[in-house]
Design brief:
Elements: E1 9-13, E2 17-25, H1 29-43, E3 46-55, H2 72-80, E4 84-86, E5 92-99, E6 102-105, E7 109-110, E8 115-117, E9 123-127, E10 133-144, E11 146-147, H3 149-152, E12 163-165, E13 168-169, E14 173-185, E15 188-200, H4 206-264
Helix pairs in contact: 1-4
């Protein structure tokens, strides 16, 4: 049987970045586990992002706003960098209303109680005139991974005039990397030591992301193995019955010998 590795431990920890170390992995299992965790972390963790926006007085994304330094596309790019925690499964609306010459940040949004902005200092736009006004309404939704706006379109759905859809970066993971080294276990020197680095956007801790990725993998493997448990049980019972049969055969042979002796007499 392949030996199990040692429990993972944290060897380096910063604000939203953690390096995990897993030792004594059977040869080849460093790549197997490291790559599996990396793929799940990048593609399968849930997060929240802005999916739609509406700017007062603007009909489409290829526009400029009077008194605002950035064009609409630049504002869209800045809005995609805002990171949220959403404490409900229902989409939530947030509104930004500013006037006068100033730098607009994420903290200027009026958020509902079910929404928390993790990076309120993120730049949104710059108003360059005292007469400038900017009003933005956004829709915040939950999702998994990265979803381009084309992938979220539903058949026959029509957007309101002035509503602009955004590519949504739902994943809370900013970076995942892994490295493998050889290590000694007993007489062998080809066992793997795995280093896994996880960096998040602050909406989830690296430890929480590591735990969730493992849970996703375990749930999938458990489901795949479930259908074969019953077959394995039947096979074991069948083998047990076969082992019991020789004992009956032995008694039968002894009875036959006794019968032969009686006939001879």
């Amino acid at each position: 049987m392949i030996p199990l590795p040692l429990k993972p431990k944290i060897i380096k920890q910063e604000k939203n970045k953690t390096v995990f170390e897993i030792e004594a992995l059977y040869p080849g299992y460093g790549v197997t586990i490291g790559n599996s965790l990396r793929r799940v972390l990048l593609s399968s963790l849930e997060g929240a992002a802005i999916t739609k926006m509406k700017i007062k007085g603007i009909q489409h994304e290829f526009s400029t706003i009077p008194g605002v330094l950035e064009d609409v596309i630049s504002i869209m790019m800045n809005l995609k960098q805002l990171r949220f925690r959403l404490f409900t499964d229902q989409p939530q609306k947030a509104i930004l209303r500013v006037k006068g010459e100033k730098e607009v940040r994420g903290s200027d949004f009026e958020l509902p109680s079910q929404v928390e902005l993790v990076n309120p200092n993120n730049h949104v736009a710059t108003l360059t005139k005292k007469s400038a006004e900017l009003e933005i309404e956004v829709l915040i939704e939950k999702g998994v991974g990265y979803q381009p706006r084309e992938a979220r379109k539903k058949g026959g759905e029509k957007l309101e005039i002035g509503t602009i859809e955004l590519d949504a970066i739902f994943t809370p993971i900013k970076k995942v990397a892994f490295k493998i080294e050889n290590m000694r276990v007993g007489e062998r020197t080809d066992f793997d030591r795995l280093f896994l680095e996880i960096e998040t956007d602050g909406t989830i801790t690296p430890e929480g992301a590591f735990l969730r990725a493992n849970e996703i993998l375990v749930s999938h493997f458990s489901l795949l193995a479930e259908d074969f448990k019953e077959d394995e049980k039947v096979l074991v019972e069948s083998e047990t019955l076969k082992k019991k049969k020789p004992a009956k055969t032995k008694k039968t042979k002894e009875d036959e010998k006794k019968k032969k002796r009686k006939k001879t007499k």
